[in-house]
Amino acid sequence: MRQHLVMGNWKLNGTKASVEALIKGLTPAAAAHPSVQVAVCPPVIFLGLVEQLTAGSKIAYGAQNADVHESGAFTGENAPSMLKAFGCTYSLVGHSERRTLHAETDDVVAAKYEAIQKGGLIPVLCIGETLAQFEAGTTNQVVETQLKAVIDRCGIASFENAVIAYEPVWAIGTGKTATPEIAQSVHAHIRQYLAGFDAAVAAKVQILYGGSVTGATAADLFGQPDIDGGLVGGASLKVDDFSQIIAGATK
To answer: Which of 25, 83, 117, 179 counts the highest number of beta carbons within 10 A?
Structure first.
């Protein structure tokens, strides 16, 4: 049985004080729900602080982005091995904001995914469609194309050590959430598509939902057979909200 994973993406938010309060507040919630994997992705500048604060807890953590290079003249970037040295387990890759704001193509995302795995981290591959694509009924084609770029470069077996996060772009930061039925249908299609390459890998990979999950919607979403948890944005910045989402992921 796949374990539920609830991961907070803090984006460009936080202070030293708020990070400390968040981790201290979430530690009891994570301990109270041992069946749920709990992780956070803070801004990279806070990784050292998070490393200290999570010591002895069951909270894992990761980066929001990683570079394809291990070293060199790449100002402002962070190599996967550097992130690993600060205790990261995960790195997001291909988040819609990176694709849109930083013009990261499917090929760039696939290269970063490969580098993240080679650097010893678990990539959390973010895929999903825009509102226009959703309304045009091309959601399945969009996610297949995004997955195929990674499969072509890294192989289907790479998903044995990866997480997928389906994030409908139209539901990120908008307050809109796909119904559990809509989200489940896309998750099921993702798993079915992967099964066309390797059924065993498809059955094991965690697929998270990443579209404005709240404490009120978590249990219904995570109760779907192919939804294995959530990649949580704004709600992960509030102890009470994120704790409710963790509770909602308990099987």
So the answer is: 83
